[in-house]
Amino acid sequence: MADAISRIAGLDFASVTPERFARIVKGLSGKEIAAIARDGALRKRVLDEVFGRMERQFRPEAAGTLTALLRWRITGSGGNPEAVYETRIADGVCTVREGRSEAAPRVTFVLGDAEFLKLVSGNASPVTLFVLRKVKVVGDVALAAALTRYFDIPRPGA
Predict the structure, then answer these.
(1) pLDDT in tens, 49-74
(2) CATH code for the domain in which residue 56 is found
(3) Residue 155 belongs to a domain
(4) Residue (of 124, 114, 142, 128) closest to 33 by Cα position
(5) Could you please report the per-residue DSSP string of 67-97?
(6) What confidence category does residue 1 fall into, taking pLDDT thresholds of 50, 70 and 90?
(7) How confident is the model over 124-150, as a mean pLDDT?
(8) C-alpha closest to that of 5 among 58, 59, 78, 74
């Protein structure tokens, strides 16, 4: 597990493509992801990078006139608190911020670190995670189901 932590900690995220990140996540066990999540500074660095990329991977042509606030609650583990990020889609632009605003989200996703990383790296099906109750969706379920159309989700490959 120390190998997984040092492998992720040593990444220069600026040079890692979404596809390479997806392959890295695919190669991690649940225990390794849990170990990464327990390292508070590394967890924050990974979450900040993933959410920072959302703006770049947004597909405005697919979103059209959609206006929505999405709240992501990544449950804490190993003494780490819950992490909250918000994704706002409006006027063909996606913006992301850390923390909870006063605005009411159209949909809120509640999931653990491992499920979140697998979801955003294309290593898990959102439908499967929902059916298995690994992700809780509060609010507009139809928007949640359509969300993958609005972002370029990496394909981890073999």
Answers:
(1) 889 889 999 999 999 999 999 999 99
(2) 3.30.1050.10
(3) no
(4) 114
(5) -EEEEEEE---TTPPPEEEEEEEETTEEEEE
(6) low
(7) 91
(8) 78
